[in-house]
Design a protein that fits this description.
Elements (H helix, E strand, L loop, with lengths): L7 E5 L4 H11 L3 E6 L13 E2 L2 E2 H6 L3 E6 L4 H12 L3 E4 L5 H5 L3 H7 L4 E6 L14 H7 L20 H24 L3 E6 H6 L3 H10 L16 E5 L4 E5 L3 H11 L4 H4 L6 H6 L1 H12 L4 H11 L3 E3 L3 H5 L2 H5 L3 E6 L3 E6 L23 H7 L4 H9 L3 E2 L3 H4 L1
Helix pairs in contact: 1-7, 10-14
InterPro entries: CoA-transferase_III_domain (IPR050483), CoA-Trfase_fam_III (IPR003673), CoA-Trfase_III_dom3_sf (IPR044855), CoA-Trfase_III_dom_1_sf (IPR023606)
Keywords: Transferase
GO molecular function, one term: CoA-transferase activity
């Protein structure tokens, strides 16, 4: 039994924000059916690397899902979508605002065939406001939210966060929004419409930065790896790389001085006497710390910091992360069989449940893999399905291999 067993979701999203949202919901047990245009499908299908003409990137965010390739610009395609919607619990889309209305699959239309539907839209800038019609990829949202001005080294060019943070923020926001709406429906029987955007969701994560601006008018700038309000709390150069140190509290600072760098005199030094003084002299503090840490390799310092009870860790390259024994012990890398890619690895489930552990049950589908299956579920027979294939209303990339 999984938390969302029995919940049916129609997924009209592509690239990352929406697919990440539906991936997590599918891990929770929801039956997610991707409605994809053809012959291209979800645009992330064209992102390499490729194995046997199938993209690895698509496979990462679309596990546990089914694919129905459907022409939503055709009258028959829309009719089929309405039949599917009548049996669905949740619909998620990330078209530009206004597109679903043109296609006759918007919330107001679907509500007529499924009054308690939960309908979620994810867009770049939201459904309202002067920028609502603008295209909004992650890089655009990182610029608008100010992330690129507060990332990187001081005085450097604007830098994007290393991952697609606004995409993931929007997907995560949609997840909790949908679950809240689902609980509301369980309690009242009412469905509803909800929407979020890459900009809104990313901006909502600027907790410390908004506090500084609203409280004192401070505009956050790039600080490298430094914390904006605490130190030592950053990465420091070692003999062979970098080590992260989190010793911002007075207690941890004193442990760091006494047992790690063995400089107890820093505790009472005027320039480092309290947190504010350490922040005022952060450049000099960094130089003093690195002068000592560069005498030994990262592993030496991590062991010493751990022994002193000071939070610390190595600064890995991504390949080192994926090969770390702790990551493997936490089952954050999972192997599975893909029908075209073969044996693949994917990132595991980050939330560990004691009663209903989430499951990676199936690999991402090829384009249209489940088209016929989903049409049978809404009562269509083989002759009707064959005719829809002939009329190019539906599609299956490897249909000829299956026939």
């Amino acid at each position: 039994m999984l938390p969302l067993d029995g919940v049916k979701i129609l997924d009209l999203t592509q690239f990352l924000a929406g697919p990440y949202c539906t991936m997590v919901l599918s891990d929770m047990g929801a039956e997610v059916t991707k409605i994809e245009r053809f012959p291209g499908g979800d645009d992330s299908r064209r992102l390499g690397p490729f194995i046997n003409d199938e993209g690895y990137c698509f496979a990462m965010a679309n596990r546990n899902k089914k694919s129905l390739a459907l022409d939503l610009k055709s009258e028959k395609g829309v009719e089929i979508f309405h039949k599917l919607a009548a049996e669905a619990d949740i619909i998620i889309e990330n078209f530009r605002p206004g597109v679903t209305k043109k296609l006759n699959i918007d919330y107001e239309t679907i509500k007529e065939v499924k009054p308690d539907i939960i309908y979620c839209s994810i867009s770049g800038f939201g459904q309202t406001g002067p920028y609502s019609q603008k295209g909004g990829f992650d890089i655009i949202a990182q610029g608008v939210t100010g992330f690129m001005r507060m990332t990187g080294e001081p005085g450097g060019r604007p830098a994007k966060v290393g991952i697609a943070i606004n995409d993931i923020a929007a997907g995560a926001s949609a997840i909790y929004g949908i679950l809240g709406a689902y609980i509301h429906r369980q309690n009242t029987g009412e469905g509803q419409y909800l929407e979020t955007s890459l900009v809104d969701a990313g901006l909502a994560w600027t907790i410390w930065e908004s506090a500084a601006y609203f409280g004192k008018g401070e505009v956050p700038e790039a600080t490298g790896t430094r914390h904006r309000r605490s130190t030592p709390y950053q990465s420091y150069r070692t003999q062979d790389g970098y080590v992260t140190v989190g010793a911002g509290s007075q207690r941890l600072w004193e442990k760091f001085c006494q047992h790690v760098v063995e400089k107890p005199e820093w505790i009472t030094a005027e320039k480092y006497i309290d947190l504010q003084k350490r922040m005022d002299n952060i450049d000099e503090l960094e130089q003093d710390i690195e002068a000592i840490l560069q005498e030994h390799p990262t592993a030496y310092w991590v062991e010493k910091l751990d022994a002193a009870g000071v939070p610390a860790g190595p600064v890995y390259t991504y390949d080192q992360t994926l090969n770390d024994p702790h990551i493997k012990a936490r089952e954050m890398i999972v192997e599975m069989e893909h029908p075209k890619l073969g044996q693949i690895k994917t990132i595991g489930v980050p939330v560990k449940y004691s009663k209903t552990p989430l499951q990676i049950r199936s690999a991402a589908p090829w384009l249209g893999q489940n088209t016929a299956e989903k049409l049978r579920e809404i009562g269509m027979d083989e002759a009707e399905i064959a005719k829809l294939y002939e009329e190019e209303v539906i599609y299956n990339k490897y249909r000829e291999e299956e026939v």
